[in-house]
Amino acid sequence: MKKRKTNITRKEFIKKSSLGILGAGILYDKLYAGFNFQNIPEKRILGKTGLEVTNLCYGASRTNEPSLVRRALSSGINFIDTGRSYFNGQNEVMVGNVLKDIRKDIVIQTKARIQLREKGEELKTNNAFKKISSILDSSLETSLKALQTDYLDILLVHGASSEEIIHHEAVLEFFQKAKKKGVIRACGFSSHSNQIQLLKSTNEKKFYDVVMIPYTHKGSFLHSNTGHEYNYDQKALETELKKAEKNNIGIIAMKTCSGGPYAKEKEKEPTFKDAINWILNHSFIHSAAVAMANNKEINENIQVMY
Length: 306
What we know:
Elements: E1 3-4, H1 10-16, H2 19-22, H3 28-31, E2 43-45, E3 52-54, E4 56-59, H4 66-74, E5 79-81, H5 90-99, E6 107-112, H6 126-146, E7 152-157, H7 163-166, H8 169-181, E8 184-190, H9 195-205, E9 210-214, E10 220-222, E11 229-231, H10 234-246, E12 250-254, H11 272-280, E13 287-291, H12 295-301
Parallel strand pairs: 4-5, 4-13, 5-6, 6-7, 7-8, 8-9, 9-12, 12-13
Antiparallel strand pairs: 1-2, 2-3, 10-11
């Protein structure tokens, strides 16, 4: 995995960062107090996509407050994760309003949810093919409009749990056509369950560019919406993640703070920053997506980039 850090002065950082556009009315000295400007944020190449992303991805799913996205961008983050279903589509609208003037400098990832009643043999019908194609076409068109852009850097199938869906002919054809048209640069899926099997099949078929899955130091995570705790086989997952790294698949870790804080040394107090660092210290992880709903969370988490 390629990493890049560059020495830079405070003045150069402010000039080169998105803050040059976002920062009207912001007091630079106050905003950057305590920062070490000898380095700009660490960036990594996201697998075969070629996209250069910060090791910390701002998850916008828990807020519809534009000032928090601006705060994340001003810290140096260049990778934003959203989804068509968040806040009934208004999350994409908010993100689009913030990014419209600096679109070329930011990597945008969004998601399209495929909700079907059809299962098993029913998925092999022409009707199911048309329905999936229609859902994805509509979701893509709506996302492009909401985000005020003519292309998406990454589009994921949202919350995948079935191999039948992620490898469905209609899904594969949709992504191939969208790439050819230039409206998406990379494709993949996110998954909260059955992620080991989905990753295994992805390693075998080698179609997808990006996979977004839960990964924590505990081998489990607490879902913030349902309150349920989900456990997975950490060893089995890491086996497939190592294969994915060899296959040059971009891996984005999610639910990164849902395993709780972590202490790298027994005598130290556990922190979420160290929990994220534990994840990023694995070479198969390119970026950790963290949903940050307030400035306190942003201030703590952005420390992993320096």
